[in-house]
Amino acid sequence: MPQHVLVGTRASALALTQTGHVVDALAALGRGDLTLETVRVRTDGDRLTGSLQSLGGTGVFVAALRDALLDGRCDVAVHSLKDLPTGDPDGLVLGAVPPREDPSDALCARDGLTLDRLPTGARVGTGSPRRAAQLLAVRPDLTVVDIRGNVDTRLGRVAGSATGPGDLDAVVLARAGLARLGRLEAVTQEFTPDVMAPAPGQGALAVEVRSDLPADAPLARALRLLDHRPTRLAVVAERALLGRLEAGCAAPIGADAHLAGDGRTLRLDAVIVRPDGGAILRRGRTIALGADGVADAHRLGTELAEILLDAGAADLAFLGAAR
Ligand SMILES: NCc1[nH]cc(CCC(=O)O)c1CC(=O)O
Known about the structure:
- This protein is of the alpha/beta class and about 325 residues long.
- The chain contains 11 helices and 13 strands.
- Helix content is about 35%, strand content about 25%.
- Helix 1 packs across helix 8 (about 220-225) and helix 9 packs parallel to helix 10 (about 295-310).
- It is globular.
- The termini are far apart.
- Keywords: Porphyrin biosynthesis, Transferase.
- It comes from Cellulomonas fengjieae.
- It holds the Pfam family Porphobil_deamC.
């Protein structure tokens, strides 16, 4: 008998697409030993309409899926990795981190405009303090408008869109989400990390399972094959940085890690921006990877966070909290 596995997902178009990729990959890797069924879980983040900040950040998207996993309504939960709060929840483990998409942010503007061509005072939509601060660092004249909603709703707010009110000149979205939804045609500029550093974990998926999953179960074997070591090491470093800074996904912090030196070293670059964009702190660090790469990646993130704290990161973050 093949192992039958319930895969929990949010019901947004992006979540369903992401979960579809994971289900297909697990089915292929499990060969005949796994059958998979998708289960939709409604989260507070989908149900309530206040600003993301007022709901307590993107953790609201994750909590309901984790509850479903813990009480057995599903056996696997697929999340956008950047939405996971730092810190490991009791009873759950990160079973696999599949290969990452391009983590960059993208501008989707009316009339093909780029950031430097938007008119003075242009209205740009984002719910992310990290994106807002980095936009204002380059273009202090812009009016940043707090928006949320799924990718289609946000794209519909750009002037000239056929599907929405068109009250904004542009929005900023993760390129990865647009790619997965087949909406890359809306992108008018892809940001390099020196202009807009992505959120820790952006572009990666997290496949969570209960920690008591037996190592010899077909699901456990398929997860080990799905796991992509370069992506896992990068996101462990990025999230360890965020954890040491005691910050969440709403913090104006960008981080970008990648393997270098033929996979023997890990490089982490991080940016902390004052929420008004008026001050930026950038630091980077590279380490050699030893026998336990995950532990090394974690140490890299923690050490770079400490370098940033020594350079005054808490003052920038405090200004954010005081705003
Ligand atoms: N917070 C919402 C969210 N979570 C993950 C993605 C995009 C896909 C990804 O980063 O993997 C998005 C939308 C966005 O930021 O544009």
